Amino acid sequence: MPYLELRHVSKAYDAGRSGARTEVLADVCLGVERGEFVAIVGYSGAGKTTLLSIMAGLMQADAGEVLIDGRAVTEPGHDRGIVFQNYSLLPWLTAYGNVRLGVDQVCRDWPEERRRERAEQYLAMVNLTAARDKRPGELSGGMRQRVALARALAMDPAVLLMDEPLSALDALTRATLQDEIERIWERDRKTVVLITNDVDEGILLADRIVPLSAGPRAHLGPSIVVDLPRPRDRKALNRDPRFKEIRREVIDYLLASARAASPSATRSERPDTTPDVPAARDARDTREVRDVREVMEVGA
Amino acid sequence: MIAMTINLKSAATRVGLALLPIAGMACVLMIWSVSSRTWSTELPSPAKTWEVSKPFIVEPFAKRGELDQGILRFTWYSLVLVAKGYAIALLIGTPLGFLLGLSTLFRRSVDPIIQILRPVSPLAWLPLGLVLFQNAKPAALFTIAICAMWPTVLNTAMGVRAIPQDYLNVARVLKLSPATRFFKILLPATLPYMFTGFRLSLGIAWLVIVAVEMLTGAPGVGGFLWQEYNSLIYEHIIVCILTIGIVGFVLDRAMSAVELRLKAI
């Protein structure tokens, strides 16, 4: 049984005055094994953050459920560590203070000394010991994200959820942090779900890459196993034919879903006919059925 | 050569800029002087004002009699009263502001009341205070508190509502206890707004104290002002006005300095 499982998750937002509901996610299914690194790749605005919020417990799905180790997820918990796109560091606390905040929540019974050590340990893991007493305002974007990562990891979560953690950084810093994330993941081999809009990043870091179709009514496409050997060298990958193949597959799917989504702008206004037995309305729908089955098979 | 010209120019600009406030004050003195000689003959001239007020200003801490003290002594009495009333305003206003910001239910029920009470002048509150407390001192504190409270309440509420959702998400994700959430997130995030409210409240408190002292005859700058008016020593009225203005200015500056330091975080 998958460690983290999403079963037929759907979510819709009420669109203010017009009253029309925008279905952001429709029938999202995903299975993540323990210790697996899964990357979800998709367009901006497709519903990636919504998906992660539901996994984190910050939001409730309208239909379907999220399970971790068999237990349903209804609210945030310490078993899920989250790294947000906007760092979400508290600007009045130092880097140490921010990590310590996380540690204090999880290690309530520990003596002060042990907690301090733990916070320092995780700061060292992200190479920020020198910046320990600096406030987020004095840190670069890359350093801030490292603090956020340290905070999330210091709580020793069962699952690490990352919502486009590197999107707000420049390309060079991004590359550096990607390498750090891989290095850190290799240590503990946590279960990780990375949400990103960069296909290359997903292939570089993940064991499996799952595309999220373009919204509205986004769902997960066929997941592709990244059978490239680790550690992955960024420069060598550029010449690797398998890398290019995976990349092409993912991008093809994403582009096709975008093309399919745009002419049907009225799709969200049609009555919701998402049945458990989908009728084959057109070629795309047939692929939907196949995709779901594939994902379930891989995750089982 | 050019560098020298530029230096001279900037030096001249700086001197010019420093002279502007002095020029402004000189204008006012002139208008005052002319007015006292022409259309308002009861108004004492600047020269006369200085002459008559000298004992109060030159010996600001003297105490010659209950109602005959140095100007800074009077100021001190006023400040003490303001401090007490202001403290009450903050102690009541800040929690009220937090409640307003955090609870929509509370805001909907209490906001209309606040909007109605806010525009009421201290001169209207004082009689009510006297009725409630039957004594001038608590009535004065009541009046200061209830008039000075509103900027603190409203700015604190606004500050709470302005807290970025990111920080609240952090609280949810880390599963912070309500107390930790308050002290580590809500309070530091709202502090800059709170201090804007504190600064505005202090300004109002200082305004109110003068009115209250005039009406209750309590010793202080306002009390002295009213008493001197009744004694027909108009020069002292002007000195009081100047004192009130300068003290108010200094208080505001002090609070601004704190506020700026907090906003820099």
Quickly describe the structure.
By secondary structure, chain A is of the alpha/beta class. Chain A is built from 9 helices and 10 strands.
Which properties best describe this structure?
heterodimer, A: 300 residues, alpha/beta, Rossmann fold, 2 domains, 6-stranded mixed beta sheet, 19% strand, globular, disordered C terminus, B: 265 residues, mainly alpha, MetI-like fold, two-stranded antiparallel ribbon, 2 strands, 83% helix, 2% strand
Task: Give the % helix of chain A.
Answer: 25-40%
Order of helices and strands of chain A: EEEHEEEHHHEHEHEEHHH
How would you write the strand order of the largest sheet of chain B? 1-2
Q: Which segments of chain B are poorly predicted (pLDDT under 50) over 5 or more consecutive residues?
A: none
What structural class do helix, strand and pairing data of chain A support?
alpha/beta
Terminal residue distance of chain B: 44 Å
Kindly provide the name of the CATH class of chain B.
Answer: Mainly Alpha
CATH-defined architecture of chain B = Orthogonal Bundle
Strand order of the largest sheet of chain A: 6-7-8-3-9-10
- Give the biggest sheet of chain A: 6 strands, mixed
What is the tally of helical segments of chain A?
Answer: 9
Distance between the termini of chain A: 6 Å
Note down, in words, how this protein is organized:
The complex is a heterodimer of chains A (300) and B (265). Chain A is built from nine helices and ten strands. Chain A has helices at residues 48-56, 95-106, 112-125, 141-154, 171-188, 199-205, 234-237, 241-261, 283-299; strands at residues 4-14, 21-32, 37-41, 63-68, 71-72, 80-83, 159-163, 191-196, 208-211, 224-225. In chain A, the strands form two sheets. Chain A has a six-stranded mixed beta sheet with strand order 6-7-8-3-9-10, sandwiched between helices. A four-stranded antiparallel beta sheet of chain A has the order 2-1-4-5. In chain A, strand 4 and strand 5 form a beta hairpin. The radius of gyration of chain A is 20 Å and the shape is globular. Residues 265-300 of chain A have low confidence and may be disordered. Chain B has a single domain, classed as MetI-like fold, CATH 1.10.3720.10. Chain B has helices spanning 2-37, 46-58, 71-102, 104-117, 122-133, 136-161, 165-173, 178-216, 221-230, 234-263; strands spanning 63-65, 68-69. Chain B has a two-stranded antiparallel sheet with strand order 1-2. In chain B, helix 2 (46-58) packs across helix 10 (234-263), helix 5 packs across helix 6 and helix 8 runs parallel beside helix 9. The radius of gyration of chain B is 24 Å and the shape is flat. Chain B starts with a helix and ends with a helix. Classes of the chains: A alpha/beta (300), B mainly alpha (265).
